[in-house]
Amino acid sequence: MTSPRLLIPILVSLCWACFTEAATRLPTVFSDHMVLQRNQPCPVWGWDEPGQTVTISFAGQSHQATADANGRWEVKLSDLATSTAPRQLKVEGSSEVVVSDVLVGEVWICAGQSNMAWTVAQSWHGDAESKFAANPHLRLLRVPSVGRQEPQDDFEGAPRKPPPLSAPSATISDVICNATSVFPSASSTTPGAVRPRRRGSGVKP
Question: What is the pTM for the complete model shown?
Answer without folding.
Answer: 0.71
